[in-house]
Amino acid sequence: MMSELTWYVGVDWGSREHQACVLDGAGEVCGERAFAHGGPGLCAMGSWILETVGDVAPATVGVAIETPRGPVVESLLEHGLAVHSINPKQLDRFRDRYSPAGAKDDRRDARVLASALRTDRHCLRRVTALDPQLVELREWLRIRAELMDARTQLVNRMHEMLWRYYPAFNRLVGDELSAPWAQALWQRLPTPAVARRARLSTYAKLLQKHRLRRFDAVALQAQLTEQPPNIERAAASAAETHTRLLTKRLALVAEQLAEADAQIDALLEELGGADPRSGVVAAADPDEKPRDATILRSITGVGRCVLSTLLAEAGDVLSRRDYRALRSLSGMAPVTRQSGGSRIVTRRLAVNGRLRDAVLDWARVAVQHDAACAAKYAALRARGHGYYRALRSVADGLLRLACAMLRDGTLYQPR
């Protein structure tokens, strides 16, 4: 049940300056002020809000802001204020109340935010402080995503360089260019000339060291020593040098990815969501309900990335066991547009992208390894549903199942 609010504050945040507006219960403006971004400015904003509203409990002062996280939100939460976030698209609609012509400025936006909180509080999402472990987990997840993108970019650039002077190597490794064996092979045989000078025993040792049984030493030697493109020596040398620099950066990214994975695994172990195959079992009283991470990890298809994304991106929703909010946030709830005799159902676009991708991956794996999910997916496809529409339906059922299990405190038991 939502607590009663007596004061309403709108904060239009920016990169350099934040505009705040305070309204009383009748909607009258009681104060407006801008604050510079930074430690002193954010601290002053929280103190000014409390001074403006007078001698009232901070929990009865509602604050509306467009973002659900960040230093501004965290500073307001530290002052004990009831922070609510609103989607920018919703704010754009609320703004039309004050200016149908589309006028926009920071002061107007701050007032619109406060007014929307006063009149349509149910349209805003209450922001709560996350567990410090979940905050750290979310940060490591995003670091990992950035590293994965960086690795893809480096691999694509390395493919381009190899295509210029060493296409045989490109064809050999294919999509596994970032794999340790492919990087080790290139370090030992970086050019067609070096590959021609290498002995057959060198190829055999490389294959044995990396346990590659799909290649034969003779066939490998024949493929890498084929006639290279007839380009100038300077161009080939430049491409080889560029590739060498790219491999060093790939090695650094691989090292950082390993660190990120280790940190995520350690945090999941602390939260009770360790991989069952690791042999780590969370000590718990048999009479107590399992922890949320333990329950979610027991469901088919939930691995390290899916579990960590669920906890980090939807931790507050999962703590409330709010199935409707979870399916909307992840994009599994469809959007219906109906007018007169027209009725159109489309997929939801205003979603948390990271959460959506994780839930779809979860459903994809569950369809492959869970009989109930596979049967549901097959039935939907037989009815003419497309691949992603059927997958979203399976994911929607999994979210309903997860919320029910969390509510009851039970582990997953396949039929």
What oligomeric assembly is this protein in? single chain
Q: Major β-sheet, in short?
A: 6 strands, mixed
- Amino- and carboxy-terminal Cα gap: 36 Å
Number of domains: 3
Instruction: List low-pLDDT spans.
Output: 279-284
Class from secondary-structure proportions: alpha/beta
SSE arrangement, N to C: EEEHEHEHHEHHHHHHHHHHHEEHHH
Strand order of the largest sheet: 3-2-1-4-5-6
Strand content range: 5-15%
Q: From the alpha-carbon coordinates, what is the Rg to the nearest angstrom?
A: 28 Å
Can you tell me the overall shape?
globular
Q: Give the count of helical stretches.
A: 18
Task: Tally the beta strands.
Answer: 8
Q: Fraction of residues in helices?
A: 55-70%
Average of pLDDT? 89
Task: Provide an overview of this structure.
- The protein is of the alpha/beta class and 415 residues long.
- The protein contains 18 helices and 8 strands.
- The strands form 2 sheets. It has a 6-stranded mixed sheet with strand order 3-2-1-4-5-6. A two-stranded antiparallel ribbon has the order 7-8.
- Helix 5 packs across helix 13 and helix 13 packs antiparallel against helix 16.
- About 1% of the residues have low confidence.
